[in-house]
Amino acid sequence: MKDLNKLIEEAQQSELKAVTRRHFLKDCVAGIGGIALGGLLASCGGWDSSKSKGSLDLNALNPLIPKSPHFPGKAKSVIYLHMAGAPSQLELFDYKPALQKLHNQPCPQSLLAGKKFAFIRGVPKMLGPQATFKQYGQSGAWVSDHLPHFSKVVDDVSFLKAVHTDQFNHGPAQLFMHTGSARLGRPSIGSWVTYGLGSENSNLPGFVVLTSGGKTPDAGKSVWGSGFLPSVYQGVQCRSKGDPVLYIADPEGMDRDMKRNLIDAINNVNKTEYDTFKDPETLSRIAQYEMAYKMQVAVPEVMNINNEPAYIHELYGTEPGKESFANNCLLARKLVEQGVRFVQLFDWGWDSHGTNASDSIDLGFRNKCREIDRPMTALILDLKQRGLLEDTLVVWGGEFGRTPMQENRDNSDMPFLGRDHHTDAYTIWMAGGGVRNGISYGQTDDIGFAGVEGRASVHDVHATMLHLLGFDHEKFTYEFQGRPFRLTDVEGELIQAII
């Protein structure tokens, strides 16, 4: 009874707050202008009388309904594989025999002058490739012996060999790679895509995030945040071990009908709140309650990999019940198969500085490659055999590259071989979703220090991804703080060679 009285008292105070003199004056200031503007709009034929009472737009209550892009896109969904920490392109895809000849020689001053590095100080030594390379497929793509499985699918892939960024620390670089800005507050690319296209499955989130490697990215959950877009478009993090979403099951004693009645009651309160204050986040809250209710049925089934046939588990190298990159690759296929628009995989542990054996470029790096080689290859093969690769864009990469010189700190060698962060050149590959097969676009210099042709910025990568999904990146905007914002800011060119 005491709790009930407290709730009644809070409701009365909330109602009184809405009619205090301060709130009355505030509403009048906005209201008088609104009345005048409404009159002008009505006289110009721009006001829909059917909505004059401020009733809820049904489409606003279902913000993830499928939408049409600017033009028919080749890709309908995206699987983005981000290797958090930045893998070395010089041990994977960018073969530089000239660098091997310079191994252990002092780094030329011309490479150091005017450059900023995260950790290198003084004069480091050059570091030759710590892998063996061969050419594979009809395309003749160079791939190292770290990726024996992936070498078999290079003809289904387009490589961007000269991607560059302007951020050399992990957090800002990851933000830049996923939001188009090194500062907090911008929407992630997954949020932009679900905002623009909605989702084809009303029982699952449009944007799902899966992590592996034991940690989340350095930039935190902002790399899948919705920024200034409505929060319904932010990524929903699921787990590949245990319950896919915490509290996915109802507590003991609550059945499905009781849950439905509870959510209906909460949504009725939220609808009243929206009619009063017109806060768009209230609509997001309603949509998220509805989604959570639907997810309780849909998520456990789609996130269960135990019922996959044995040959699929063998193909991916999955281990049901464990958190792993392999499990997440299989889950990504299942999610896009069920109509999820954007699936983001983050695999942590690619920061190869050489401070210890696990992050060395010749030991720990090789082990990380073993963890991803089979699963990411299986993902391409599995999507292809199911006819899904044609309209699923698969993207792989890190936030920047690694230096062709060995890392030193305080002008002294590290205990193990390692490479520092590098902004001037790194490799990203794409497959499916309208991407040309067997292309290697861009080229770095003889030691892999900088791009010399076909350079591509982060904004160029984003512009190309949006184009493949059917969007003109210059026209795909959202009004915020008085101006239209876009993922590519005021830059970005299409990488036509891979489209």
Automatic annotation (TrEMBL):
InterPro entries: Alkaline_phosphatase_core_sf, DUF1501, TAT_signal. PROSITE patterns: TAT. It comes from the Bacteria. SUPFAM superfamilies: Alkaline phosphatase-like. Pfam families: DUF1501 (PF07394). PANTHER family: BLL7424 PROTEIN, DUF1501 DOMAIN-CONTAINING PROTEIN. This is Uncharacterized protein DUF1501. It comes from Sphingobacterium detergens.
